[in-house]
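Sample entry copied in:
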Amino acid sequence: MTPKQERAVRTRGRLVLSAAEAFDRQGFAVASLTAISRSAGVSNGALHFHFESKEALAVAVETEAAERVRRAAGAPDSAPALQALADAAHAITRQLREDVVVRAGFRLGADASRGSALGLPQQWHRSVVRLVERAHADGSLSRAVPPSDTAAAVAAAVLGFEALARSDPGWLSSGTLAGFWRLLLPRIAADPVESGRLDCEPAEFVGGPGPAPPAVPARGR
């Protein structure tokens, strides 16, 4: 990569981060391209060189967020499915707590005025469905609980905590989610949770295959 290409990559990265902060703080409709370029330390011309519109910038934020969510929600096939489900939920809430790009991606995906094609909330639900189907297939999910009900409860809980955290970040604490799992796991697990085979607390590392992507903290939050 040439020095010019490296500068372009860095500029694009600053713009994506600046846009994520603006979308997270203000929402898509209110966020200003002028303010985004100023925060990134680049000119309006440089912004429009990389992104032809605010929508294109929003798509770039969502795309980056989707990749981070995919890695966080991923689990090797050998991992116990129910534990992988709990760990994935903790990984996503940790990202929502610490990573402004992921947080903005979820907010953009839930913005009905845009009609997002990526839809991070829907992507998260699909990840949950896959893990629940694995748990159903390997016998770790109670036969008394429909898999669709379990997937809906887990996906909705995380998305609900994300929405509530916009006014109170405490909703995204690891303790809040651990409490949810202490309530849910005894109901959905085929084996007693007290046996110690399942852990409601966040895993020390839950980032999917390979190293977890670095979190990008929000400024002024």
Summary: The chain has a mean pLDDT of 85. Residues 131 and 168 are 29 Å apart (CA to CA).
